[in-house]
Amino acid sequence: MPLQKLQGAMRIFSCQRSYCLKAQGQLTKDFVEALKAVAGSSNVSTSLAVCEQHGRDESMHRCSPPDAVVWPQDVEQVSKLAAMCYSQGVPIIPFGTGTGLEGGVSAVRGGVCFNLTRMDRILQLNTEDFTVAVEPGVTHKALNSYLRGSGLWFPVDPGADASLCGMAATSASGTNAVRYGTMRHNVLNLQVVLPDGRVLHTAGQGRHFRKSSAGYNLTGLFMGSEGTLGLITQATLKLHGTPEAMVSAVCSFPSVQAAVDCTVQVLQASIPIARIEFLDDVMISACNQFSGLSYTVSPTLFLEFHGTPRSLEEQVQNTEEIVKLNGGSDFAWAREPEMRNKLWTARHNAWATPRMCVSPSPSSPRLWWRPRETWRNLGSQEGSGPEWHLHRGAWHWARQTPAAAGGDWRGGAGHHEAYQGHTRPQGPHEPWEGPVKSACWPMLEHSCPHDREGRGKSPKAAPEPGVEPPPPPRGSS
Description:
alpha+beta, Uridine Diphospho-n-acetylenolpyruvylglucosamine Reductase, domain 2, Alpha-Beta Plaits, 7-stranded antiparallel beta sheet, 5-stranded antiparallel beta sheet, 30% helix
């Protein structure tokens, strides 16, 4: 048995070595010159400022800059550069618009960052087949602007103006997922440059068929791979017809449970609702302040309906009946595009509102330094013990009250929590043990003096609820 464990450890170590043979900051001058020979001197940078810009995204993870950044101009350059890095054991980090929330662009072992934003052509639009092929630098807003007047649109909207190939790499979702699905349902084919430079078409070169039962589902394999399996250099997407009419609504509820019950009943009634979003009273208050709105401060649903004017009347009537059965009130309708855009912009900006519009209670413990491992391991059942939650850039600790839905949603440690989430066909999004928990604290760097020194430190044991643990010593592990 000890020999088997030793052999297993040796295999793991050898895999790690084969993944990254170069230590961070060890790119040779000759290697950098070779990169410039392929991509051009103006498309390669080793500047510290540029590398730091490419070493983080919108997540809470600290900056881990690469050793160099390259801007390929086409798939041939991507293939040659990837083959060079592969032959030298240099890590490859794909980079799009940097709007991810998972820290996938962090160069934890250095390497070369491939910024693909200069490959920004819309290659082929097939209006009869409802498909379009795009390069990685094309964002979903740029695509919909290009499609204006064609009668088609791409509905997956994650909020930020993310690149479409980056959205495929992270299997992005969005507020329209309940009707139109996520990126996984709207990508038909991918062109991928593998780590050794080979070019792969996951559904076959030039193919954009929606129905296929032959062979491996390679497209699904690369969806959500976050750059670990290859660099996505082209995506063939499924388009949808532009709705003839749209109408949005906001309604408030007396409790969280009532809003959740209403959401479930709307879906059970097979109402073809396009968007349905939840925000609790703390989050709606923050959105009111941040976006200049005046909605009732209570658990709230944002809804949107797509279809013909006649079908919208039926959808709205059926939804209003369900809302009233669950105690909903204060309907606010938005029919004009400007009002609808303002409403959904406020929802998309919700990730920023906790940092700027909600302040922690003075009695809240400063537990910013807790690492992800503790968050994962200290989870407890609802109503007992401490829980750790990570959401959009900040840590916080809270003890759920036994009266989960509709009860007092204040943290047991004395600070406010905000909740937000959206539904999709598979079920509630962004784990729904109750309404989705979102940290409502100011920026990390301005809230805890132990953040920079202590983030990533692992505590020995879980603290008792309401008891502040001692700060981690500097330099401890």
